[in-house]
Automatic annotation (TrEMBL):
Residues engaged in binding FAD: 55, 126, 155-157, 324
Record has tRNA-binding as a keyword: no
Cofactor dependence: FAD
Keywords: FAD, Flavoprotein, NAD, Nucleotide-binding, Oxidoreductase
Biological process, per Gene Ontology: 2-oxoglutarate metabolic process
Domain FAD/NAD(P)-binding per the UniProt entry, residue ranges: 9-338
Co-factor binding details: Binds 1 FAD per subunit.
GO molecular function, one term: flavin adenine dinucleotide binding
InterPro entries in the cross-refs: Class-I_Pyr_Nuc-Dis_Oxidored, FAD/NAD-bd_sf, FAD/NAD-binding_dom, FAD/NAD-linked_Rdtase_dimer_sf, Pyr_nuc-diS_OxRdtase, Pyr_nucl-diS_OxRdtase_dimer
CC annotations in GO: oxoglutarate dehydrogenase complex
Active site feature: 458 (proton acceptor)
Domain (Pyridine nucleotide-disulphide oxidoreductase dimerisation): residue spans on this chain: 360-467
Protein name: NAD(P)/FAD-dependent oxidoreductase
Taxon lineage: Bacteria, Pseudomonadati, Thermodesulfobacteriota, Desulfobacteria, Desulfobacterales
């Protein structure tokens, strides 16, 4: 193993996914010398198998579903789709993003920069060899050891698997291998009804080539969400032809020459066997912390492999962690925020404490669902008194024009004089943009009255936010007395 004779790096980052890449660039902004290590491909899961790949598929499936509609004043006579063509488009999108990342790494490569701040990008598997050393098994078969004043672990996660079910990525897939499909399976069973499972159920049902079975081990999908949100998503999936099997657990998969027989056990004691052509296992993700040499730096992960961090993402000494390897939500935007914060903290750059009340996420269903802040379950668990208003898209001019009136906005505010915005759930077109208005309001700790007087553009989906807030104040243009099925307002107080 060769040991570099030159001065130690200011920072070594293990993992070049979205979080690691963002952390590296923030360190370059500060004029630091960075070593960025990636065992697989630049962009990690967030680009190759995760968010970018699945959302590209989702966009293609959404477009196909719209083209197949018969209520638009037009009709496609010869609408065809092949999985190989879909896959090729997805791979093009992946390569575009990877090429952008490679281009930037080349610009800031060590030895090519005259200004302060550089990145040495090494392709290989890194592991800790002490508090300030990282050993790298390079992909060319050689080994190298480097020293760094700071280390940031952003190695992401991998799909969780059943111990008794082999994933061959031929007929039994996980989310990292679903692109290996050769064609649309006539029948697909998805095990796991969390966000990823529901997103792939949406994708395959939208393409209209596959009968989808979605297995949920609980009574309702998305159990962490409020009942109205879960029920809304369930209805839309079922409307798209998805069969949801609630309170069911996978017992076994029998592989026959031309199909799979999936045995399920139900909570009420019943059982069934469903014949399908492919199975997607989507039961969560596990952190990529094995083989990192954590013990050599005195770091002990928890039983599930996660790393415990303080409020500044520090694990121990000058070693930090961000993204899926921590206990925080496994989201790309979370990994990016944590990585950038960790870099600012380690180099004593101006920063403010990490805060997550305005953490937003988008679930790409049909239609999409966005979330920020607390839902009603969260408020009740905290014993918060609140008021909640729901305004459906059926009354929104932009949604009517788009012929996309399925959906709603639901805003929760504190039931006091301040009327602070606690959270929001939104379903429908363009919710990924709509949600950011409320995220900003939560971040700025603003109350309802500071928003309702603003002028929103018309016709836009964002107008629903203003009208929903007006509804909370009793000043909405459309009234619940006239539209009780579309406009509701409730309050909840903890029981004394």
């Amino acid at each position: 193993m060769s040991t570099a004779p030159f001065a130690p790096f200011d920072l070594c980052i293990i993992g070049a996914g979205p979080g690691g890449f963002a952390g590296a660039m923030r360190a370059v902004d500060a004029g630091r010398r960075v070593c960025l290590i990636e065992a697989d491909e630049i962009g990690g899961t967030g680009v190759k198998w995760g968010a970018l790949a699945s959302k590209t598929m989702w966009e293609l499936a959404k477009d196909y579903a719209v083209a197949a509609k018969r209520d638009r004043g037009y009709r496609c006579r010869d609408l065809q789709v092949s999985y190989s063509a879909v896959r090729a488009t997805v791979m093009t999108a992946i390569e575009e993003k990877q090429q952008q990342m490679r281009r930037q790494l080349a610009v800031f490569a060590e030895g090519r920069r005259t200004a302060p701040g550089s990145i040495a990008y090494l392709q290989g598997r890194g592991r800790l060899a002490g508090d300030d050393r990282v050993a790298i098994a390079l992909n060319d078969g050689t080994e190298r050891e480097i020293r760094a004043d700071n280390i940031l672990i952003v190695t992401g996660s991998k799909p969780r698997r059943f111990a008794h079910i082999p994933v061959d990525q031929q007929r039994i897939f996980d989310s990292d291998g679903i692109l290996d499909l050769q064609r649309f399976p006539p029948r697909l069973m998805i095990i796991g009804a969390g966000v990823t499972g529901c997103e792939y159920a949406t994708i395959f049902s939208n393409f209209g080539q596959t009968k989808v079975f979605l297995v949920d081990h609980q009574e309702m999908i998305l159990p962490y969400e409020d009942t109205d949100v879960s029920a809304f998503v369930s209805r839309n999936l079922e409307h798209s032809g998805v069969t949801i099997l609630h309170s069911a657990r996978l017992r076994d998969i029998d592989q026959n020459s031309d199909h799979l027989e999936v045995a399920l056990d139900f909570a009420d004691g019943n059982e069934t066997v469903v014949a399908v052509d492919a199975v997607l296992i989507s039961i969560g993700r596990d952190p990529n912390t094995r083989g990192l040499g954590l013990a050599s730096a005195g770091i002990v992960p928890d039983a599930a492999g996660f790393l415990d961090c303080d409020a500044d993402c520090r694990v121990r000494g000058r070693i930090y962690a961000a993204g899926d390897v921590t206990h925080r939500p496994a989201l790309v935007n979370m990994a990016v925020m944590e990585s950038r914060h960790a870099v600012k903290h380690m180099f004593r750059l101006p920063t403010r404490p990490l805060s997550f009340p305005n953490m937003s996420t988008v679930m790409f269903f049909n239609p999409a669902v966005a979330a920020v802040g607390l839902n009603e379950k969260g408020c009740r668990q905290r014993g918060l008194t609140y008021r909640v208003a729901t305004y459906t898209n059926a009354l929104l001019p932009r949604a009517i024009a788009m012929r996309a009136t399925r959906g709603f906005v639901k805003i929760i505010v504190s039931d006091d004089d301040q009327q602070k915005i606690l959270g929001m759930r939104a379903a429908g077109p363009q919710v990924s943009s709509t949600i950011m208005t409320i995220a900003l309001l939560i971040d700025q700790d603003m109350d309802v009255r500071e928003v309702v007087g603003s002028m929103f553009p018309h016709p836009t989906m964002s107008e629903v936010i203003q009208e929903c807030l007006r509804l909370l104040m009793g000043k909405s243009i459309y009234k619940p007395e006239a539209f009780p099925d579309h406009l509701t307002i409730r309050r909840w107080h903890p029981t004394p």
